[in-house]
Each structure stands twice: as structure tokens, then as C-alpha cells.
Design goal:
homodimer; 310 residues; Rossmann fold; 13 helices; 13% strand; globular
């Protein structure tokens, strides 16, 4: 615990694995670390595949390093629930920053056996926060609900778009447009950047946010490092706005409310499972598959039994 | 209930809404309908944005109609958790089949307030199954974990790829390659189709499935209706294989096991919430945001209290 708080990279890696895999002591570890959190800025960055998220996140990390801030990156990858393997690309990326202990990169390749990906990401961010990282950058592919959920719970959410995203672009956007505190048009030297900007503006003219903030649009060419300073400045602006309007605390409470529901859901499932004997779930599943039982009555029955057994 | 079973479209729409929104009586409705399910073939189709899923699903629906089968389509869209609006495109699509009561299309735009998207989709499929639809086609964008989950629980899972998917194609694929019972290369008249096929074959040569099945690769040009018959034949082949090897029941039991866990998770959360007074969740969230409490101990406390209160 002390080692984690001092930011020792090996202790950090071990602590994150413990939390990610829900290994023995994970919950005690988080309880002990929680009082030391709340200092880091947590930024969420999302966008469709091919938007250049990793490159932009790397640029932003370098920017914060120049300002002498330490950085933690959590890269959430929609990989297989089966293989559980991390993506090669991230290993290569990691080597790129290997010389700088001020940047710590963690790939979250799978959702844990318990709890959703969003839940685990929040827990890993808690560990990084307690370890004294100044900025935590969470990067996800913004298409699935899970992935959207993750960045939505950040302090500042950046949505990255690119020109020419093809047929389903409206569909992709639908899920992530509303969560943006800041828009980035990356690869903005490509044809069609103006159109993307017009589309965002058109969307913004239709609805105003309840908090009164109009998300700015920042143009970047991350591969050449262009626009990173502007993005960093836009993040500072939004943070200042939240502070001025006293919105930061409100937002934090709302986020915790959602997280609590998720945590409660998982913990209650564990409670139910702990009271079922091994194999009973499979037996029930077979009975349902044979249509000897309906699953809806069964679940009510199991839940009802919880009170009586203890 | 009777009306739903007779396939009356208005009763069906009402029943699906009840289930989707968890309105009064949803659980009783599903209990009553469940014994009448298990007859429909449930096909899941997924692929990255822009793969032409909707077009292919429509072609497949037309094919089954020619064989005099009734069809239900569930189109799952990764839209905003806020607006909850269905996508315009699906309304247009719906009109296209309006004249044929043998095709019923339902857009699932949002995840319900309770339960994940996968859970709700399974329940909606139950309603369609009980209403006597012969084939149920579930279509999702295959990038997020949630979306992958949905089609994985189908009887047959079809993964749709297209040539030239850009930078992150490896990342997209990672999540959905293993769940494919059948691969489709759509827009196969485009350059790069051979390469996609080679990549799939290369992947297949690395690992064999535990059930011994090698997913075939079907090439289609859905916009011109090419390859639909071949896809339908591949689906029949896989179903025959499952039957011959006695795998269908096994798969069904496994699917139900996973669904039961999800259902239990939600039901237990409801139980926990029912015993918390209104506003207490918000109060707790505020205390956590102020760092007066740690959420991990709090959740244990709430779960522990469940037994005593009843």
C-alpha cells in the first residue's frame, strides 16, 4: 500500500492487477487507497475506430510531462472475452515511453470476471489517483455503451472525430455526441474537416446543455503534434468553467451515484451466488433450456430465498 | 397475452414496449410467454459500422419470406443514453417492409433503465419467439462488449466484415472474430476482399474451435442481393452440424447460464434498492464525493444490511 502511494511502478502494476482480476484483498486495497484519491484530473477520450485516439493521447501525455505533471494512461480495448490478451500495439506504445517513469500506461484488455469494464476502469483510476499521478487519461473506443459509459464518468470528456468516417457515421456519433465536453477533429488536414465542424455546430444549435456549457471544437493533426496545446487549453477552460459555476462537485456526486449502483449490482450478485451450491446454476440453465422451468420465476425464487437462508 | 401469441402486431408492439421499459406486469408477461418459446431460430448478425448489416439483414429477411417463414428483426443501435431516440433510418426501413406483415422490425435504441442491453434484447426475442415468428434476426454494431454479448447469445452468430476497414481494423476484429459461426465478407466486389479472406483463414489456421466447427466464409454484395442464398445455406449447414453433434442443447444451456447471471444481478440490485429510502443513494454519493466515506466499505455495509432488515 505504502509503495503504491509512493508511486513505485512495480507495486502499482501489482495493485492494478489485483483490482482488475479481483484477486484476494482487492476490496481492502481499494478501501485503503480511497482516502488518498481525488487529487488527479481524470480525462476521458473517446472516438470511433481509426480516429487516432492513441496518438492524440500520447501527444497530450507529452504535453503534461512538459508541465512536469505525472501521467497515467488507461487504454481500454474492446478485445475478446475469450483470449483476454492485450493488444500488441500497446506494448509497442509502452516501450515508446519506457524511458520516462512519469508516464505509466496500462492496457485494459478484458472486462473482469466480476463487474463490468466501466466499473473496473474506475477502480484502476482510483489506484492511479492514490499513487499520486497528476493526470489520468482514459482512452476508449467510443461505440459500445460500455465504452461510452467509461469516459462519461471522467471529469472531462473529449470526443474525437475525423473527416470522412463513412456510411454509419451518424450512427457512431449518436452515442457519443452528447457526452462531449470538448470536440476534437483529428486528422483535420484531411478533406471534409470543415464538414465535420459544420455538423457539430448544427447539432449544437439544436440543443443547449443543462449546464450552459458549449463544447468547443479543437482541430488537431495528432501525428504531427498539431493542436495539442489548444486541446490542453480547452480542457483548462472547461475545468475553470466547472469551478466558477460550482458544477464540479455536482458532477462528481452524479458520477458516484451511478458508480454506486454498478457496485451494488455486482456485490448483490456475489451474495446470491455465494448462497447457491456449486453446479446449481448449470442445473437451472439445463432445466430452462429443456423448458421445464421459466427463468423469470426462478430468479424471483432465488432472490426471495436470500433472506431466509441467513 | 393471447393476442401476442396469435401474432397480432399491435399487441406485439405493446408487449415489447412493456418488456423493454420494464413497465408494470413485464415479468408476469414473460413468465406467461416463456413456455411458448423455443421454436424460433435466433440468428445474430454483427459487424463494424459501415459493413452493410442492415442491408444484409433485409436481404436475409426477404429470403426467409420467400420460404414462407415469418421474420422478426431486432435492430440494436448504440444511440445515446440521454435522448433515447430511435434512429431515423430504421423508421424508413420499417416503411419498406410495411406492406408485409410477415416481417416485424423493432429498433432497440436504448438500454432500459434496469438491466443491460443484452438482457433486454433476450427478453424481446422471447416475446417475438412466443408470438410465433419463425426466424428472429438480431442485428448489432459489433464493437462494444455489450453488442458482442448480444449476438453471442444467438443460436447462430454471423460476423460481417468488409474490405478496407482502415487503421483500427485489427482492433475491431479482435472482439468479434471468435464469436463467428459464419463469416460474411460483404461488399465483396470491392478491392481487398481477397485480403480479408486470407486474414480470416490465417486466423483460423492458428486455433481450432472446441466444438470442431470451422466457420465458413461467405461473400456477399448485399446491395445487389448477391450471396444471400449462400449465407442462408451456410446457416442451415451450421444448424445441421449442431444437431448432428448434439451441440445445440449444450450451447443453449451455456447461454442460459450466462443469462441467468445477468438476470440475477439485476434482480438483486432491485432488492437492495427497494430497501434503501429515497434519496439515500444521492446522500451516499455526496459523502463519497466529499471523501467522508469510502464507497467500497459502504457497499459491503448495504449488502450486509439486506438480511437483517427483512
Amino acid at each position: 500500500m505504502e509503495q503504491v502511494r509512493l508511486g513505485d511502478p512495480r507495486a502499482l502494476a501489482r495493485a492494478i492487477s489485483t483490482v482488475e482480476n479481483r484477486s484476494a484483498g482487492w476490496s481492502e486495497l481499494l478501501k485503503a487507497l480511497f482516502p488518498h484519491t481525488g487529487k488527479a484530473r481524470i480525462l476521458g477520450l473517446t472516438g470511433p475506430p481509426g480516429a487516432g485516439k492513441s496518438t492524440l493521447v500520447d501527444q497530450l501525455a507529452k504535453h503534461y510531462r512538459k508541465e512536469k505533471h505525472t501521467v497515467g494512461i488507461i487504454a481500454v480495448d474492446p478485445t475478446s472475452p475469450y483470449t483476454g490478451g492485450a493488444i500488441l500495439g500497446d506494448r509497442i506504445r509502452m516501450q515508446d515511453h519506457y524511458a520516462d517513469p512519469g508516464i505509466y500506461i496500462r492496457s485494459m484488455a478484458t472486462r473482469g470476471s466480476l463487474g463490468g469494464l466501466a466499473r473496473t476502469t474506475v477502480d484502476v483510476a482510483t489506484v492511479l489517483d492514490a499513487s499520486g499521478r497528476d493526470c489520468i487519461l482514459i482512452e476508449t473506443v467510443g461505440v459500445g455503451q460500455d465504452e461510452v459509459e467509461i469516459v462519461r464518468l471522467a471529469d472531462v470528456t473529449v470526443v474525437i472525430l475525423v473527416p470522412g468516417m463513412g456510411d454509419d457515421v451518424q450512427t457512431i456519433k449518436a452515442g457519443i455526441m452528447e457526452i462531449a465536453d470538448i470536440f476534437v477533429i483529428n486528422k483535420s488536414d484531411r478533406e471534409g474537416a470543415e464538414r465535420v465542424e459544420r455538423e457539430i455546430r448544427a447539432m449544437q444549435s439544436l440543443a443547449t446543455r443543462s449546464d450552459g456549457w458549449t463544447p468547443p471544437i479543437v482541430k488537431t493533426v495528432a501525428s504531427q503534434g498539431l493542436g495539442t496545446e489548444e486541446l490542453a487549453a480547452a480542457i483548462v477552460d472547461y475545468e475553470a468553467y466547472l469551478k466558477k459555476e460550482n458544477l464540479a462537485f455536482r458532477k462528481n456526486v452524479e458520477n458516484w451515484q451511478e458508480r454506486l449502483v454498478e457496485m451494488l449490482r455486482d456485490a448483490m450478485l456475489e451474495k446470491a451466488r455465494a448462497q447457491m451450491d456449486a453446479g446449481s446454476l448449470e442445473r437451472y440453465a439445463a432445466e430452462i433450456a429443456e423448458h421445464k422451468r421459466d427463468p423469470y420465476s426462478l430468479v424471483e425464487e432465488i432472490v426471495g430465498r436470500i433472506d431466509k437462508n441467513t
